[in-house]
Amino acid sequence: MSLKKDNQKKIDKVYMELALNLARENVGLTGPNPSVGCVIVKNNEIISFGQTSFNGRPHAEHNAILSANKSKLKDSTMYVSLEPCTHFGKTDPCTDLIIKSKIKKLFYAHDDIDYRTSKRAEVKLIKGKVKVIKNFLSHKAKKIYKSYFYNKKNNLPYVIGKIACSKDSYIKSVKKYISDDSSLSVAHLLRYRNDGILVTYKTNQIHKLLLI
Q1: Tens of pLDDT along 144-189?
Q2: What is the b/e burial string over 120-135, where b = at least 16 CB atoms within 10 angstroms of the residue's CB?
Q3: Average pLDDT over residues 3-31
Q4: Within 13 A of 152's CA, how many CA atoms are on the CB side?
Q5: CA 203/CA 212 separation, integer angstroms
Q6: What pLDDT score was predicted for residue 42?
Q7: What's the rounded mean pLDDT across residues 99-111?
Q8: What is the pLDDT of residues 60-82, one digit of tens each?
Q9: Residue 165 φ/ψ, nearest 5 degrees
Q10: What is the three-class DSSP state of 145?
Q11: Distance (Å, rounded) from C-alpha 106 to C-alpha 180?
């Protein structure tokens, strides 16, 4: 690999890392769709970026394109944390919008597992004269989409468990928290990023009393 190509690959990795970080930021907040990050670059300058909106729409690519200066989109490069959608749903496919915007090159970090899109974006984009580099930094994207892939593959919710336990195997104390402050903060983050929380009937009754 030439020095010039090696340097460009390093630059591509930086932009893809930015897209992955944008995806990480909204994990758990974009259901039923996965959290996706998108960065658009031209002449090694970021001209726009986007994330999947809360509740899943619009998609990251859509948000990034609409936020960009339209005159700069032609011949730009897009970095996306997940394969762009190719199917019609409540919105048009992101691949159609990418082609229409005359984006020249697209990097995406991992194939989507959704059967409506999986491994279809490349063919469609190439026909639209967009150069595609797929599965770029896929090992990092795979960690972000672990729960999404599990849900799509098994049609089951991805469950996260958190428990605090004393040395003598108790999970509750009437005098004080078993968890320390940092562990309690993690618990609040898990509550924030999950769609449902399993509680005991006693906890549920307390919440009802607080709401009355």
Answers
A1: 999 999 999 999 989 888 888 888 888 777 777 788 888 888 888 8
A2: bbbebbeeeebebebe
A3: 93
A4: 17
A5: 15
A6: 97
A7: 98
A8: 999 999 999 999 999 999 999 99
A9: -140, 135
A10: coil
A11: 45
pLDDT, tens digit, for every residue of 19-38? 999 999 999 899 889 999 99
Size (the chain), residues: 212
Return the structure tokens found at 192: 């924030």
Report the predicted TM-score, pTM, of the whole model to 2 decimal places: 0.85
Residues 180 and 178: their CA atoms lie apart, in Å, by 7
Residue with tokens 């948000």: 63
Residue 210 has pLDDT above 60, yes or no: no
Catalytic residues: 61
Question: Scanning the structure block, which residue is given the tokens 């672990």?
Answer: 146
Q: What element of type H or E holds 78?
A: strand 77-80
Burial class (CB in 10 A: 0-12, 13-18, 19+), 72: middle
Give the CA distances from residue 173 to residues 64, 147, 177, in Å, rounded to whole numbers and listed in that order. Answer: 49, 32, 6
Asked if 73 and 100 touch (Cβ cutoff 8 Å), the reply is no
Beta-strand pair 37-42/45-51: antiparallel
DSSP secondary structure letter of residue 32: T
Look at the block and give the residue holding tokens 């449902």: 196
